[in-house]
Automatic annotation (TrEMBL):
Residues 17-149 form the HTH marR-type domain. It comes from Streptomyces decoyicus. Signal peptide: none annotated. Gene3D superfamilies: Winged helix-like DNA-binding domain superfamily/Winged helix DNA-binding domain. This is MarR family transcriptional regulator. PANTHER family: HTH-TYPE TRANSCRIPTIONAL REPRESSOR YETL, TRANSCRIPTIONAL REGULATOR, MARR FAMILY. It holds the Pfam family MarR_2.
Length: 153
């Protein structure tokens, strides 16, 4: 059987609660709520946790790079970094070597806090993954990436 591309223009579902955007937002809100709950037990917010994860993988990232990667503004990113620094979870030089960037690095306590919370966060991702038939997970991840790329003009 030869399947061809649809010839009709796309029309969203008749009911807004069945629109792709609504369903994506519902899934995002559920994820955020689940993460907020487990992170609160460790004294962290979602942006703080994301910052710790990124710095563990890429030590020395700047505020601007971290803000972009954690989906917050530079100003909010700076507030996140200051909070983590005040909590002793990361360090940044007092002044920049060149330009304005002050690279951040996790402290031992930052690595320990991240390790303490990772299993709980990864369990949330596992719950999401287990809700989908295993043979469809890779395609879903590819499709989500395509959706983001299509909107990032």
């Amino acid at each position: 059987m030869n399947e061809s591309a649809p010839t009709e223009p796309f029309r969203p579902a008749d009911e807004v609660t069945h629109h792709m955007g609504y369903l994506l937002k519902r899934a995002q809100a559920a994820l955020r709520g689940a993460m907020d709950k487990v992170l609160r037990e460790h004294g962290l917010t979602v942006p703080q946790y994301a910052t710790l994860e990124l710095l563990a993988l890429h030590p020395g990232m700047s505020n601007a790079d971290l803000a972009r990667a954690t989906f917050v503004t530079r100003q909010s990113g700076n507030v996140v970094l200051r909070g983590l620094q005040d909590a002793g979870l990361l360090t940044r030089p007092a002044t920049a070597d060149h330009g304005r960037a002050r690279p951040a690095r996790l402290t031992e306590e930052g690595h320990a806090r991240l390790a303490a919370v990772q299993d709980s966060v990864y369990a949330i991702e596992q719950r999401m993954t287990e809700a989908i038939p295993p043979q469809r997970v890779a395609a879903l991840l590819t499709d989500l990436d395509r959706i983001a790329a299509a909107l990032e003009d």
